[in-house]
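Co-fold these.
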Amino acid sequence: MYLRIDGIEKSFIDDRKENVKVLEGINLNVKKGSFVSIVGPSGCGKSTLLYLVAGLDKSDRGEIRVDGNLVTKPGPERVVVFQEAGLFPWLTVLENVTYGLILKKMPKEVAKTKALDVLKMVHLSRYVNSYPHELSGGMKQRVSIARALVMEPDILLMDEPFSALDEQTRMVLHKELLEIWRKTKVTIFFITHNIREAVLLSEEVVVFATRPGRIKEIIPVPTMKDGVTPDSVTLNTEQRILSILQDEIEKVLKEEMGDDYSFKTDHLHRGDSGDMGSHI
Amino acid sequence: MGRILLGFTIAIVVGLILGYFIWRYKLVEDTLGFVVTALQSIPSIVWFPLAIIWFGLNDFSILFIVTIGATWTMTVNATSGFKNVPQLYQRVAKVYGSSGFHFLRTVILPASVPQIISGLRIAWAFSWRALMAGELLGGGGGLGQLLEMGRSLGQMDLVISVMIIIAIIGTIVDNVVFSRLERNVEVKWGIRGRA
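Predicted complex below.
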């Protein structure tokens, strides 16, 4: 296995000085070149897990290995694409993309050629010398993806990268991300709270339970060979994940709103009984 | 003029370095940080008697109060500039393998530039005041001395003219140097549109 997450545990001290367990007994293996998503209710520790893999945070117990090497600190072989692009506003698009390469002591000219190639891949060749504020949210996120890809990372860690974007931009970026993934064969570890996004993009969806965060189920997403999955299959998987998550969502809501709250689902609408016979 | 430039430069450098340490180490923040806040509330001219005893009534004393007038403000501003660097930028830089001096140079410093510029501006105003006060009391030529001369000769026209000159120089520096600097950064960062 390429990425091995072994018995990870992590707690935080909260505002009331209480010890809160965020992650408990996380074991996960990710194959090289695969696209794995993690979904779960908010606050379930999925982002924390990503930070642990990135090396930005340290676990209390357990270990994470990438290609056999223990993760101890952040490094350019495990780059993160954050929810917000996080481009440096004082650098141009090109300088932002070459930031990591120049840090690796790559000659400027080589870095520039590489960066231009990657920027072409995300369709931003026209904005090479612009400053981040001149770009739209979607374009910023593209630059951020380009900045990550140019490092030729072993694993691309994505922390809800599209959740701040509007629906149209998100759809386009989904498509482009899949193309990039097929082209570069990079391993992608993708955090999201959007079930549809997870199902559309990844080969495997890891469903998280909350308080403490742990893996509830790992669901493979059936994909057709040509990469186009019929809507019914997607919808079915989505439903399955949603039904798994329902208990968890209810648990979170009860904690926030009080015990009498119940998360009711409408079984007529898109439930199994409302399937109109597509399973026949 | 040379006095203020030198004093101002020293103040900036010292302010940035102190600011760095206060930002970096909690212990320094709790100890030195508090002292700096206290020192900041002392008008720099109050240091003048001490400066005269230490250095004598000369240029060096004036340089000293010019420097000390600007240093603390610069320190406070640099500290808050460093503290307000978004976590996101720091995380991004670390992910790409930046650390140590490189991290400071490529992330922390540029990210706090807007705040540092406003620090410069206030520090400039403080050192300009300190310079005038110092010259007025200490001598060694300059506008302050001219003012003192006007007073002793009873030439109010000279006094008023010098006051106007002081105001004009202060305004010019603020408008030409600092405002422009600030605007450039703001436009580049997209905080403000191109005017």
